[in-house]
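Researcher: I'd like a structural prediction for the single chain below. Treat it as a standalone chain; there are no partners to consider.
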Amino acid sequence: MFLDARPSSDAEDPSDLLEVRWDFEDDGAWDTVWSTIQTSGHTYEEGGSVEIRLEVRDTDGLTDQKAETVWVPSDVEFFARSWGLDLDGQVSLTPDEAHFMQIAGGGAHSLALRSDGSVVAWGLDGFGQVSETPAGAGYTALAAGREHSLALHEDGSLVSWGRDLQGLISLTPTGDGFTAIAAGEAHSLALHADGTLAVWGDDADGQVSSAPVGAGFVALSGGGAHSLALEADGSVIAWGADQFGQVSDVPTGAGFVALAAGGYHSLALSADGTITSWGRDLDGEVTQTPTETGFTALAAGEHHSLAVTGGGALVSWGADGSGVVTDTPGGTWFVAVAAGTYHSLALEP
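Model: Treating it as a single chain, here is the predicted structure.
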């Protein structure tokens, strides 16, 4: 179930960036930590009536709570939809099965996370991107680079597979305590529970050595040779390659809630659902960015981007090689998106 707290605001200061946390079954135990990312999701094993509690906190530490009773359908299953370049089966080999909860797009391969926490991969397998996918269940998040992938286990540990360029696999941090992951073209990132970053892999443009130090980060995204991190106040930090302003043109201010880094451009989602883009604009990656509010999710590929509207429709823009823009499926039921280099994915019921 997708949960959205972004309509919440501070009546005395509407610009104040609120933190939220969720109790998915109103059992007195908070299921998430405080975060400025005001959307969340939860999988219920059974359908029926359930009470969900939300608590919000402003920058002065003042809190408020609200509980709502909602009906959870017992028959909602999410399928993966793919389109764009299909030279290696990244579209045509998309599994025709339900129970997917997350998707990720790589160079010419893709990943999906089943509701039981198992991982499925398809597409190009030149470096084991598909055949070396970890078995078993219990995974909670996925990320895909050009020729490698990684997964976050429910115990907070990391698993990487695929091409071991510049230590992408062999230098994967050990131990637990990680809460989020991301993958660039040839570098990887992970977020510790204390908000510090771990970065490894290719460092030709400072993807690793220029990573910010310190705690307090709440989200991250990896691009071609640059990366993004979101601070607790909703401000964006960028580092790495900067030939198209991927770093120097990063938007100032706070209030952002989600990030997506593409090949040479980036996106940031504001609390009101507006999208800010910067970086390479040779194919309209920036100037064609939709100006409406209410978007709920976004993703960035090599030279294209896509987003989900508040009504569940998909919008794509940028370079249209192999129909990655013009073949974007219609409908108003999509809940998540991901982008590979020249292909895209979405989740639909």
